[in-house]
Design a protein that fits this description.
- It contains eleven helices and nine strands.
- The protein is α/β, with parallel strands linked by helices.
- The protein folds into two domains: 148 residues, TPP-binding domain (Rossmann fold), CATH 3.40.50.1220; 86 residues, 2-Layer Sandwich (SIR2/SIRT2 'Small Domain'), CATH 3.30.1600.10.
- The strands form two sheets. Strands 3-2-1-7-8-9 form a six-stranded parallel β-sheet, with helices on both faces. The chain has a three-stranded antiparallel β-sheet with strand order 5-4-6.
- A hairpin with a 5-residue loop joins strand 4 and strand 5.
């Protein structure tokens, strides 16, 4: 705990990177785990852009309970911790691989969603934007959302396979990585790029890493500290930060 506190107090620009493990604490199933969502449907279809264009109903049918039921999930202790740390000026940004919007629900303001977000949907034809709350009742009724203006299919602003990541988000994440002298990795296996790239860059440039994950990661040897329990880690930080 003393070493953890010392690292926090000696760091001037702290960023966090979060993965699926953070949201499993909220009861959301991960994708690739033992009981992951990919056991229930074909991942190569559900988040594939070409398949979505052919059969958008497949995506909406299989995400009705997961993505369009997110309002029933509450932020975990990690989401709340990061929101408190940001509010106190200790953490500057949260980079996340998750698409569940729970960081914002907890109160985090500077959230960089590397894989996009369902918070916004847009028409594939005329690009008209729709808010998440407008789309939820349509999906829950079993229908495919269609644009009110032109009748074309509406797509979530989630990055599908075959799509490029948002350049502005990547640029902002790179800027935070360049500034960070400490990056805290929470609940990520660090096997998916570009997410795994950012903590590696922090370490390569002389910054410190703290990794909290219940399984080994490729960057464990670069970590100044490694924890395997997200909740216990959060409790430790709450203790010394007195949030």
């Amino acid at each position: 705990m003393k070493k953890l506190k010392d690292i926090f107090e000696s760091s001037k620009h702290i960023a966090a990177l979060t993965g699926a493990g953070v949201s499993t604490l909220s009861g959301i199933r991960d994708f690739r785990g033992k009981n992951g969502l990919y056991k229930d449907f074909d991942a190569d279809k559900i988040f594939d852009l070409d398949y979505f264009l052919q059969n958008p109903q497949y995506y909406y049918e299989h995400t009705k309970d997961f993505i369009y039921g997110l309002e029933s999930f509450k932020p975990s202790i990690i989401h709340n911790l990061l929101a408190c740390l940001e509010n106190d000026g200790i953490i500057k940004a949260v980079l996340t691989q998750n698409i569940d919007m729970l960081h914002q629900k907890a109160g985090s303001k500077h959230v960089l969603e590397l894989h996009g977000s369902p918070a916004k949907h847009y028409c594939l034809n005329c690009k008209k934007e729709y808010a998440f709350k407008e789309i939820v009742p349509i999906v829950k009724s079993g229908k495919t959302p269609l644009c009110k203006d032109c009748g074309a299919v509406i797509k979530p602003d989630i990055i599908f396979f075959g799509e490029r990541l948002h350049e502005k988000t990547l640029a902002a994440a790179q800027e935070e990585t360049d500034k960070a002298d400490l990056m805290i990795v929470l609940g990520s296996s660090l096997v998916v790029n570009p997410a795994a790239y950012f903590p590696f860059e922090t370490a390569r440039k002389g910054g410190k890493l703290i990794i909290v994950n219940d399984q080994p990661t490729p960057l464990d040897n670069f970590a100044a500290l490694k924890f395997d329990d997200l909740e216990k880690f959060a409790e430790l930080v709450f203790q010394f930060a007195r949030l």
